[in-house]
From TrEMBL:
It comes from the Bacteria. It comes from Streptomyces clavifer. This is Uncharacterized protein.
Amino acid sequence: MELLHRLDDPECPETPADYNAADAAASFSRLAVQVGSRFSTPCGIDRDIQDSAQYGRIEVPGEATVCGTRIVALVSKFKPLAMVAADNPGAFLGTDEAQAEGELDANDLEKVEQVLAESGYITIPEELLERSYGGPTLLRFHGSGEPSWWDRFFGSF
């Protein structure tokens, strides 16, 4: 939570003040190649998500995982923030639940988290990101209920 609060600058809701698009693109491209290398397969990518603090999404295809469920890694424009989910964010109440239900292998999760860490990212548990947002940024929230830290650093504005 300390890291989330530290990165939450109300004057810079979509990108940090020191954001460099070229550096973000290069870092994300390297990350996608490295994740794919760990699973011996190309990964699907979606980059530069519009109207969001999320930079991009890397998808490890289910065919390349032990359990047959795709793994999704999201990176925020607010580096070093990243998160990992089985199937899709919100499909499970975090990676622990996905593992308990047999949909996520611990070694597969470790591969993705290792690549993220080696690339300078910090994986924030989805459960933590789902907590109610209590920061100073005025979010243009389009969901139902109260905004969460997920909305602040990965959701759409």
